Amino acid sequence: MSRVFTPRSFRHYQTLGCIDPPERAGKQAVYGFRHFAQALLVRRLLAERVPAKRMAGLMAGWSTEEKEGMLFGGSGMVARGKDVEAGPERVRPPGEPEDWRRVVAAPGVELHVRRDRPRPGAGELQELLEGVERALRRCFR
Q: What's the distance, CA 131 to chain centroid?
């Protein structure tokens, strides 16, 4: 994944509703700190592999305080399923420790699963298994 946030990608996330429209000064678009912070949050969620459409649905349901917590305090989110309408997931408050369960898959291979993660449904379990398989294939290239 590229580290560059191009003007085109910025406009794309603005169109999705993840980044607020700019203020206007005549014909010029004026972006402020709020837009910069929203772009950073988009990048953080992309790094956590949250799909763009899911991200837009999640961010629409978050208050300003929740967005700040996500950006500055650590996300601790679980991007379940593919539906955008589900609303915001639990946001771990800054400073709250994460609780992980260690699962040994094979000698020298382990998974870490958050203890507060809901049990996946059959379709979601299949997606998780496919994701683990892709990650292992990348690891052992």
A: 16
What's the full length of the chain, in residues?
A: 141
Distance from CA of residue 77 to its chain's centroid?
7
Nearest to 74 by CA among 51, 52, 53, 97: 97
Residues 86, 54: Cα–Cα separation, whole Å = 9
Angle at which helices 33-47 and 7-16 cross, to 10°: 90
Joined together, the tokens standing for residue 15 give 């169109």
Q: How far apart are CA 128 and CA 141, in angstroms?
A: 20
How confident is the chain (141 residues) per 10-residue block, as mean pLDDT? 72 87 88 84 82 78 71 52 40 62 87 83 85 85 81
Predicted structure pTM score: 0.48
Q: Which residues of 8-38 are buried (b: 16+ CB within 10 A; e: fewer)?
A: ebbeebbebebbeeeeeeeeeeebeeebebb
CA distance 135 to 140: 9
Cα 127 from Cα 141, distance rounded (Å): 21
CA angle 139, 80, 115 (to 5 degrees): 75
* Rg of the chain in Å (alpha carbons): 17
